[in-house]
Amino acid sequence: MATDTLKNSSTGAAGVRRLLLDNGALTALIVLVIAMSALSGDFLTTDNLLNVGVQAAVTAILAFGATFVIVSAGIDLSVGSVAALSATVLAWSATSHGVPVFLAVVLAVATGIVAGLVNGFLIAYGKLPSFIATLAMLSVGRGLALVISGGSPIAFPDSVSHLGDTLGGWLPVPVLVMILMGLIAAFVLGRTYIGRSMYAIGGNEEAARLSGLRVNKQKLAIYALSGLFAAVAGIVLAARLSSAQPQAANGYELDAIAAVVIGGASLAGGTGKASGTLIGALILAVLRNGLNLLNVSAFWQQVVIGVVIALAVLLDTVRRKAGATPVAAGAGGGKGRQAGTYALAAVFTVALVAATSLLHTGSASGKPKIGLSLSTLNNPFFVQIRAGAQAEARKQGVDLTVTDAQNDASQQANQLQNFTSSGLGAIIVNPVDSDAASNSVKSADKAGIPVVAVDRGVNNATTATLVASDNVAGGELAAKTIAEKLGGHGKIVILQGQAGTSAARERAQGFADGLKAYPGIQVVAQQPADFDRTKGLDVMSNLLQAHPDVQGVIAANDEMALGAIKALGSKAGSSVPVVGFDGTPDGLTAVKNGTLYASVAQQPSQLGKIAVDNALKAVKDQRIPSAIKVPVKVVTKDNVAGFTG
Amino acid sequence: MSDPDELLRIEGIRKSFPGVVALDGVDFDLRRGEVHVLLGENGAGKSTLIKMLSGAYTPDAGRILAGGEEVRIHGAQDSERLGIATIYQEFNLVPDLTVAENIFLGRQPRRFGMIDRKRMEADAEILLQRVGVPVSPRARVRDLGIARLQMVEIAKALSLEARVLVMDEPTAVLTSEEVEKLFAIVRQLRADGVGIVFITHHLEEIAALGDRVTVIRDGKSVGQVPAATPQDELVRLMVGRSIEQQYPRERTDTGAALLSVQGLTRDGVFHDVSFEVHAGEVVGIAGLVGAGRTEVVRAVFGADPYDRGAVRVSGTALRRHDVNAALTAGIGLVPEDRKGQGLVLDASVEENLGLVTLRKATRAGIVDLKGQHTAAERIAGQLGVRMAGLGQHVRTLSGGNQQKVVIGKWLLADTRVLILDEPTRGIDVGAKVEIYQLINELTAAGAAVLMISSDLPEVLGMSDRVLVMAQGRIAGELAADEATQDAVMALAVSTPGTPTTTDKEAGRGH
């Protein structure tokens, strides 16, 4: 073994080859970078590579913390929630309660550590499986973040927000924080008592205990470290968005775990390195960035990401299996191993190139380019915005790139950053959160790219125009509709949208404002059902247990209204009128069938169409109004025929 | 055509893994109704050879013939079809299924698509009777002891109507009584015409059970001899040199009592255990498996709690159930389950050697890696650990070298009382002697050694005093010169004391 390394380090090329062969993830990353550079001219620029770094930062920092846990044969599912909770605590104490910023930061970090200690305590002394203990913390952390913030994002103190800026105008601070935390993680793992204990505990807990390691105490510390790293990640995330979002970092724990495993750690414990984890996080970021630049369809992106994760880990397993020799490998074994790795790398490249070029919708030059970042595509309303925008783009000869932020403000920030760095003519944004989008929109403004907001506005930043229907007015209309149907008297329930989103807040405000005029209407319950049909069904069924005598339902969108109708069964439309919001095709069909009494119809495809139209005008430097209201209308059975959706 | 009684013939088998040649020209044959012993040091290639028969590996060169025809064994199915069944050291049983379900796993008799439990259990009953174990087919495997698990494995092999039964060190984990029972079953199978490949490290078992012996050394078959060959000759064939003395104990003058245990009791497990171990002394603990020996030493070491009694090292009492207190006082434990409790298998030799001293080598949370490396290098050299380098994973070391690493980590921690629980289980003769030499060096340096062993000749050969445990109590103590196999066995099967008297004594603070 020793002579082997000596031999190889003597010649540089052989040394590099050795490094690649010994590290499948690094090979995968390099293959990925080469493939992306070949496919997109925008990829290999300094600006874009820095973008990739920024976009990897939060996942990487979370993943460093998760590395400690995974090396010690545990799992931490709570890191995403703890990140959001810590950031919320920081913003809440500093902004809403005037705590000095320095103290607020300490408080936020302490929150992360305490959450970690609770995990560690449950696991080490309560003997809970780490999966269960941290799953519980995932829910508790998220819940507390929502409780503290009251469901709305809180502005982040300016001094901390500088963590999201750049140094000297080009070096992003999140990248620096990522590198710093990475060095700390590497140091902890490699050089400290607790780090060496992690490997021993993960490798064989009983042997570690019988060798005098205080396993329980170490576990407390390991999970506390993971919580600490999650808190730092949360602060960086919120700093980038200048806003602490209670729903931030949702699902990031899985990205973090993926990064650790791609980086060569085993979920069985005992192996793993900080450098590997960094590579894992970079692979995920390069992939997302590249697929954005290549304009791969939002749906196919998820498929490609999943396939690449599997292939990256497969590459490493195959390499390891080939290299699992008891003694130093001889020449013959080495060759077989090389061939295996090269073959797999080749398959990997071909698969990636084929997939992306297949899914690549092709960008002919000369046409004006516009990017559209939608908050989600998991809802027919936004799918219709996309349809309207795409139809208009085709008509006008515009090259339109559509991305899906999956209701994650920070992912949207990444996508907007990618749009900005690939030099589009204009950007249309449908913000996940109006506050969180402001930094990204500002940097687009700085780059001279006009931004059109659609459906939801962007706060604290200049947009060319806002194309939207009025949610508050729509909410008032919905309230008025149900009150009049009930004759001004009766008990109703309200199904609210996803806590923390502006649409949910504004519509709820509209409902409340509208109901003020009808003192005879009693709201017996209002509960969130997250704009989701299944949740609408569940929540409504539960509410019916408590309030069987309910006489009317207002839902903040059609999806939840349709869920409520399922729960109400035959009562829907006959004895209990349900009013929805949005006027989606499903909603309108229900209105036609009489199960949905009314829907406050927006015209999503109109929103998309008008947004593209105005973005194009902005590209051509034509004057456009600063706000464009697309009318909302109450659709009932009487006028449904006139709505095509 | 060859012998019609020949079940299996292996000719010139070669198998190499990247970087290592595991087997290099092995010949072997097996006849109907014989016990053919495979003998060799750990790492000689026995396991690789039997994995060729079970289909886990395929040979690079050479041929395997079954009943005179060349066959290729590519997996468990091929092997099953040829009537070859293998019983590994680690059993392939599902702990939460019943005995009957395990025996017929994957081949449960069915009726209308549902498992026919009644028939399955009746069939299992017959098989269990054939191997002579009084176990209910409905018992859960988790609840069985290790000897019975083995019998279930044999029953499973019988249910497959195996004509070739491969047994990998079946006696390593059994007490002498259980070994006798196993031998009876094996003899019965032999009489039924089954060919048995038997792997063992216990030379005395060869004469007792075997018919022929094939010796493998460094991946080559070096000889085929009758089982009646003298042990010295077998050892010479196996290690390639002769071993002067199997138990080279050198007695030293004993000093003050280092470890003293008084009235140690855990209700229902062990009762009123008292003994002392002096500096420079090796005290052996003999007894049947289940007599409570491992439980006692684990309690002494603080790995498990106890209800009453006291453990003192050089007069200072240790806190109950506190490994770190024992460690600080200078006690070290080399556990019975080397892989499960003694080693971090996927960590390097260096890391394993430094495990106990990790805390001592830490200043302000940072480990002195250089110091750890130097220490590991020194001790590995001193113990003669055969490895590719300190970075080699201990998983890939042979059993003897693994055990040296476990002992080495305690030597680094300046252990004064070393507890060895089955220190040479599964270790070949050459490495055994090296471990005995280590024990000599330790006692010469003034340390005390407490050694549990189920290998009677080892206990008798290496101990200065022998404690015999039976049913959770110390049944008696024998000085080295009065300890004979018969004397030890007589005590081991006795029923010492009665619960009432000991409880009283303990109450009086004996």
Condensed summary:
Chain A has 25 helices and 16 strands. With 645 residues, chain A is an alpha/beta fold.
Question: SSE layout and pairings?
Answer:
The complex is a heterodimer of chains A (645) and B (510).
Chain A: H1 2-10, H2 12-22, H3 24-39, H4 46-71, H5 79-96, H6 101-124, H7 130-149, E1 154-155, H8 158-161, E2 166-167, E3 171-172, H9 173-191, H10 193-203, H11 205-210, H12 215-241, E4 243-244, H13 252-262, H14 274-293, H15 298-322, H16 331-359, E5 369-374, H17 380-396, E6 399-404, H18 409-421, E7 426-429, H19 438-446, E8 451-454, E9 465-468, H20 471-485, E10 490-496, H21 502-515, E11 521-528, H22 533-546, E12 552-555, H23 558-568, E13 578-582, H24 585-593, E14 598-601, H25 604-619, E15 627-629, E16 633-636
Helix pairs in contact in A: 1-2, 3-14, 3-16, 4-9, 4-10, 4-12, 4-13, 4-14, 4-18, 5-6, 5-7, 5-12, 6-7, 6-12, 9-10, 10-12, 13-14, 14-15, 15-16, 17-25, 18-19, 20-21, 22-23
Chain B: E1 6-17, E2 20-31, E3 35-39, H1 46-54, E4 61-66, E5 69-71, H2 76-81, E6 84-87, H3 99-103, E7 110-111, E8 114-115, H4 117-131, H5 146-159, E9 164-168, H6 176-191, E10 195-199, H7 203-209, E11 212-217, E12 220-226, H8 231-239, E13 257-266, E14 270-278, E15 282-287, H9 293-301, E16 308-313, E17 316-317, H10 323-329, E18 331-334, H11 338-342, H12 349-353, E19 362-363, E20 366-367, H13 369-383, H14 399-412, E21 417-421, H15 429-444, E22 448-452, H16 456-462, E23 465-470, E24 473-479, H17 485-492, H18 499-507
Parallel strand pairs in B: 3-10, 3-11, 6-9, 9-10, 15-22, 15-23, 18-21, 21-22
Antiparallel strand pairs in B: 1-2, 1-4, 4-5, 7-8, 11-12, 13-14, 13-16, 16-17, 19-20, 23-24
Helix pairs in contact in B: 4-5, 13-14
Family (chain A): Belongs to the bacterial solute-binding protein 2 family.
Keywords (chain A): Cell membrane, Membrane, Signal, Transmembrane, Transmembrane helix
Transmembrane segments (chain A): 20-40, 52-70, 77-95, 101-124, 131-149, 169-189, 220-239, 299-318, 339-359
